[in-house]
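Lab notebook: predicted structure, single chain.

Context: the supervisor wants predicted structures on file for every construct in the current expression panel, including those that have not yet been purified. This is the next one on the list. No modifications to the sequence; it matches the entry in the shared construct table.
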Amino acid sequence: MRRLLLWAAVLMSAAACSGRSGKEPAVTTPADMTVTSTAFREGGTIPRKYTCDGAGTSPPLAWTGTPADAKALAIVVDDPDAPSGTFTHWVVLDLDPKTTALVEGTTPATQARNSAGKPSYYGPCPPSGTHHYRFAVYALSAPTGLPAGAKLDEALKAISEKSVGHGRLTVLYSR
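Prediction complete. Output recorded below exactly as produced.
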């Protein structure tokens, strides 16, 4: 337990020094889920059609390893390289824990607001340079119970508090 607390303190210090705004859910659960996409691979480039330079369609996602005790799932897509701190592109709440994939262009019923203030997918759109885009799936101990259009900070807090596992797929995009 002591090592876990020390590790968490080191991670929080590193995040504070990096200039991030802290918009990624702060979780201490293991990264025991695997997130994949048929459209791109870990460390690869996200195709233009899923960005603001294309159709801005949400990409296909799949995951495995959802913990047996999960009662809901959440998805968060963010850009930690944004000039003003982490920019959250998409927050999906309270998916059925038996769900293992989202089809391209899927609009789940419960979406919280993104950093642009809209409850929808907002494709990668870096102002310059190469940015990292993190597609994270969180297993939750209970549904958040938040309504569609919930405030971003409320949604990320609820995900942090209820996370029992997670996984992430990170891709790049340049303009």
